Amino acid sequence: MARTQPHTLTFRISCWIMGIVAFVQLVVAGLALAMRMEATREVKVVEKVVTQIVAAPKPEPIAAPRIEVDRDPLPDLPAAVSVPLPPPRNLETPAIADPVTEKLVKEARNARISEDMMSAVTKLEQALQSSPNEPNALYELGLVHEAMGIYDRATQYYHKVFELGTTGAGSLYLKASEKLKDGFEQPQDKVNRIVLGRARVFKDTREADGERVLVTIPVQSIAGEEIEGRDLEVLVNFFDEIGARKEIAPADTSTCKVDYKWVTEPVDWHSGEELLQVTYVLPAQDQQQQHIFGEKRYYGQVVELSYKGELIDSQAWPHILARKLNKPDASPVFLDKELPPGYNQENPLLPNVDPSSIDPMPLPSYDKAQAANQLPPPPADLPPDDGIPLPVPPEYRHLPKR
Prior knowledge:
By secondary structure, the chain is α+β, with helices and mostly antiparallel strands. Among the domains are: 99-184, Alpha Horseshoe (Serine Threonine Protein Phosphatase 5, Tetratricopeptide repeat); 194-326, Immunoglobulin-like, CATH 2.60.40. 31% of the residues lie in helices and 17% in strands. The protein contains 8 helices and 9 strands. A hairpin with a 4-residue loop joins strand 4 (232-242) and strand 5 (247-250). Helix 2 packs parallel to helix 4, helix 3 packs antiparallel against helix 4 (135-148) and helix 4 packs antiparallel against helix 5 (151-169). The longest helix has 35 residues, at 5-39.
């Protein structure tokens, strides 16, 4: 009996727990049922008609009490620091990897500058055999054909450079695209884009023997104009004033000296103007030449601006010099009263003829018919009466017959 007592106690505790759980469940079920019954009740609304309107008094506004709050000032924030962006990286001309190709391209460029186009084409074609896609050689071939006026071939080479893109051609890609977009430049396209400014003339009084004149010529261009120095040429033609009659004649290049020098270097036209200084030295004349031909002095100059051999601008100083150069020399006119007696009009270089030595006998005339016995003797150049022809010179003996 002592062994069965623990089992009986466990059974009793289990029954009590189950009874408590069942009681709790019954309470919960009752509450849930009560709440459900309360929710299902119907609400009845009774409407009544109000015949008298009573105005409710308007409530007075209640001012909210002002509450002062001590706020600490916000600390000053540091100013935003703007970090500048790095400058854009310019495209560079790609280097030539093959040394043999690099040598051929340099030699071809020198040949093009010296206008040896056939040698330039030969060297560039040799360079393309070892490096078919070399942008420097392709672009140089385009420049050579453009200089020769073969624009269709030049377009083909520029297009090949354009197809390489910026990765393969670098800055040559931009140059080739500009060539294809804008077309090929003609010398006349530079008219009114490159002009001559007003020249400034300075006469150096320190020159003891002869004259020394400094002429400063501004060469101006529009902004962004691309100019190659070898295609631009400035020529200055100087003129002198001779003698008391002040005749204008070109300067004698065998005796005078002309020097050209660019004052602003390097000459790149980035500022839109470059200055060319031309020095003209007129040596002193000896007394004999000055007595015979007259004194020679500097008068002015005509400046000519050419691009690729074509004249695009000119300027004369003084301005009347252009008029004097275009005016033909008039033949001297003499009045009859100014002619000296015995003036030989047929040959003025011969001395004058004395009128008293002229035979007053009239010359024979064939204008009026006269008798046969009154005719003068025939001239000496007529064939003789015997019918024998005069001898024929040797250079006229074998002429073809008509």
